[in-house]
Amino acid sequence: MTLNRAHVVHNVCIKFFSTLQLFTFFKLTIYTLTLFDHGFGIGVAAAPATTSCSPTFPCAENGSPAVKNILYIIIDDLTADLSLFGGKIDQASIPNLQHRLAPRAVNFLRAYAQQSVCGPSRNSFLSGRHPDETQSYTFKTSFRDTLPDAVSLPQAFKNAGYLTCGFGKTFHDDGIPSPPDYDNPYSWSPECPYYAPEEDFCGEGQHGWCTPDMPEGNFTDGLVVDAAIERLRGHVHAQSLEGRGDRPFFFAVGIRKPHLDWAVPKAYLDAQVSLGDVRLPSDSVRVAPPGMPAVAYYNCSTEPPWKLAMPEIVLSPHEPLQDELERELRRAYYAAVTWMDANVGKLLDALTELGLDENTAIVFHSDHGFHLSEEGMWCKQNTREIGTRVPLLVSAPGLTVPSEARREQEQRETAGLSEAIVQLVDIYPTLLDLAGLTLPDPNMRGRSLIPLMRRWGSEGNKTENATGFSAAFSQYPRCASTSLAPSGLASQGYRWNRQCAWLENDKIDVMGYSVRVEGWRYTEWYTWEARRARPRWNAAGLVAVELYAMDMNRGKGVMEEMKMEYRVARNVANDVLYRQEQERLSKLLYDHFSSFQPFVMSADAVDS
Hints:
By secondary structure, this protein is an alpha/beta fold. The chain folds into 2 domains: 5-47 and 67-201 and 214-264 and 337-459, 3-Layer(aba) Sandwich (Alkaline Phosphatase, subunit A), CATH 3.40.720; 472-593, no CATH class. The chain is built from 16 helices and 17 strands. The protein has helices at residues 5-31, 95-101, 118-125, 131-134, 143-146, 153-159, 220-242, 266-270, 323-353, 385-388, 404-409, 427-435, 450-453, 456-459, 558-562, 579-593; strands at residues 69-75, 106-112, 163-168, 209-210, 249-255, 262-263, 360-366, 371-372, 378-379, 389-390, 392-395, 416-423, 471-478, 510-517, 520-529, 534-535, 542-549. The strands form 4 sheets. Strands 1, 2, 3, 5, 7, 10, 11 and 12 form an 8-stranded mixed β-sheet that branches. Strands 13, 14, 15, 16 and 17 form a 5-stranded antiparallel β-sheet that branches. The chain has a two-stranded parallel sheet with strand order 4-6. A hairpin with a 5-residue loop joins β8 (371-372) and β9 (378-379). α7 runs parallel beside α9 (323-353). The chain is globular, with a radius of gyration of 24 Å.
């Protein structure tokens, strides 16, 4: 792997800017000036909004707000099928999440992304809006294109006087920034320039995984986390020099792994179980479910230079990979997960070292799920349970963090568990609620999760009161393959354009709308009217319908059910036995998505 110049100079630069920062703040203390030097504008921020204790807002024993700062950790492509999050994968070591963060947090076992691909999902949860509101369906569009005056999540904290800093992949980049410049100047404080080094790739002629020979600190995630920690130290030191210490921070840290390529330090691959000991799901799980329509299916690209590029990989909905090859892939993914966990551990270490762990809320989640051969699929870009369900941990001092006395009495190894069905658009109102801030737009669809978190701090490790948290909505577009388009959508089969996420919105041909409720996942696929950017929601436009029974072991609890061998559910849409359920869910789907914009209801509606 060729080392990027940014990697080489980073350690020197970060030390220089840390020194420059302290010197600048020293001058600020003496002269109370505002200095701007090469984009590092150092100034006195607006006073943060005042907060007060309330039934939902956590406060410390002395009556002051318990949550002062926010550390927002966004992970890329992390499956929720890990055992910590109620899944069956227990071979990926994540000690920092399992033994350090989870015991201080509430673990939301049924949290869902609104679109299972990086850019649109991030545009959704960082703006607090669904994809049909942002109209960010691919990497080529952002919420700023449709909603230029919208207030992003970090921007809301910036407007309240917080120091807002972004590191790594928060908003989407990957060569097509969405929004441009990581949403500068709106989201981030001018004295904290956004830091995003280039991504680690394995290089041509290699598999989608590798172990480059270089120090951990030169890997992308090592650079990102080190930069965040150095900036955090600088902020604390500067506050001490000023004698104030009252400016809170909102730090968003985007960790790329386990996104492909799985380029990780060799020690993390060596630490995994041996290749022969990697467990695989049964063959029946590694193929498409009975009755699943072709439009619902998506697989990673295997064509160079894309991701799983190697000649022996032939991905099929009906034929599992060779066992040895799948074990290689899973082992590499687990190594990337462990590397991610190590970087989370460094952030937790820094909070403790700087005395910030008792007044900093931590939110940890993935941007979407990830398939590891389940249902015959690898990667994401679908409306399936595995593609949309995400890990979500929320830790809030005074709310989820037990007192010192309780910590001595109870050695918790699992988080407080919430079985409520929640969405990533709920993160925005939750964080503002924790900070005692008001939503900039009262019409946002997300809901604060604090009512689901309150009981764990005082009564045990199971949260309740899930009233109103009963449905999660997702969607995903499909683009016809150019070579097959003249023959019509019926000829697509499983050959939908794999690069749809890299195309403009006007190339979308079909949109899938999905809802997850207690016991069911229901999805309808409609043809798309590109000119008006909306579905043809009528019988003529309907492409496919899916209805799958979920939560069949609900009486045992979600954690017990999810840890069972993945159950292959057949598509029972249009089965007379489930007609009433299908009609109910179809109406629920329509009522939700049609509330964003009028749908094309006429059967003869066409583009013009």
